[in-house]
Design brief:
Blueprint (H helix, E strand, L loop, with lengths): L10 H5 L3 H7 L5 H12 L4 H18 L4 H5 L3
Length: about 80
């Protein structure tokens, strides 16, 4: 058995990449970007108010443990 020689890379072989190879070379998305893409692709527009309210409550909890707490408590 003689070893088979691999074909030399030509200009057309190196430039033409499969969709899988292109996807592997892309920069990964952040969690927020991926969630946004999920909402857009699946047309889950009803999730936007839920995520917004949860984000505002989380922000309120974070600010409640800082020096801004006295100003937040006066709002309620």
């Amino acid at each position: 058995m003689s070893p088979q020689a691999e074909p030399e890379p030509t200009e057309s072989n190196t430039e033409a990449k499969t969709e899988f190879e292109q996807a592997g070379e892309e920069k990964p998305l952040s969690l927020v970007q991926e969630f946004g893409m999920f909402i857009i692709e699946n047309k889950a527009w009803w999730m936007i108010p839920i995520v917004t309210v949860l984000g505002l409550v989380g922000l309120l909890v974070l600010l409640g443990s800082t020096g801004a707490a006295p100003f937040i408590y006066t709002l309620f």
